[in-house]
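Dear Dr. H.,

I hope your travels went smoothly. While you were away I took the liberty of generating a structure for the chain from your last submission, since the lab meeting agenda had it listed for discussion. I wanted you to have the full record in hand beforehand rather than looking at slides cold. The sequence, exactly as received, is reproduced here:
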Amino acid sequence: MGSSNRSDTTDGKEAVNKIGPREIKSTLKWTSSNLVISSKFVFNEMDVTGEATWSLSPDGKTLTIDAHFTSSMGDADQKFVFEKQEGGQAPTPAKPSS
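The corresponding predicted structure, in token form, is as follows:
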């Protein structure tokens, strides 16, 4: 598995990042209080465009990412919802059994 590092700005200028073997061209901009990321990349020899909108709830406890992707195979939507956990550290991951 390859490594990845991202470097982006929110001024609307295109950034080119490599995630694993894939090159992704993205622009980021603020639309009201939402961060909108527009991206272009190639997946399985197909051109893909995507737009993800990151929004934080008014109380700052829920981050929602709504994403829409388009390619020659059609459209796809994803939604991720992250809720802030109260009270300390993240749980310790389970260890594999021997």
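Two observations you may find useful: The mean pLDDT is 89. The chain has no helices and seven strands.

With kind regards,
E. W.
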